[in-house]
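INPUT
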Amino acid sequence: QSALTQPPSASGSPGQSVTISCTGTSSDVGGYNHVSWYQQYPGKAPKLMIYEVNKRPSGVPDRLSGSKSGNTASLTVSGLQAEDEADYYCNSYAGDYNWVFGGGTKLTVL
Amino acid sequence: QVQLVESGGGVVQPGGSLRLSCEASGFTFSTNNMQWVRQAPGKGLEWLAFISFHGTDKNYVDSVKGRFTISRDNSKNTLFLQMNGLRTEDTAVYYCVRDFDWGLHQWGQGILVTVSS
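OUTPUT
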């Protein structure tokens, strides 16, 4: 049950695109299409932004997109806006009713 | 509108016990898997426990196996987390989460558990 690997920080200017990676193993990210991404503002509960690698819940802007290649999943935020500044966490199913989160990435909008 | 409301948190001494509850509304609780996730102060999210919609399938992160028990009462739309043998490293905000379609779609507001002497 090792945590997925995310970069601690990422940044971009308004209007730019930023991609956050999430690296696991063939036992979690690489083995299942059950990767999800969460946005969290300080002092608030996390919010689901992407599930099943690339599906968006209703209300999540299409500026956010997800993908996966091998053992690495990615979250891309296009057309960066000030409101995108938050912490982002990836999560993957790891089999046998186990789940694992990434360490989190702090996204800064410059 | 989906609501998950946790209760039962507080301050407890090392070795003590607490029982968290999560009252669900706005969806058919009895047909949804549920999970607990926690977040230590200033740290990231940690998956804690899973329970299937019927309550027969359960699993836990290794660090709480044998100490924590997840359960549910579908007649009362309530999820529980019984925490025994609490350690200082269990200090965290605990979130009740609705697991739907392989995503953690709704989260409670979180409840703080502090383990300290």
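end of record. The mean pLDDT of chain B is 97.
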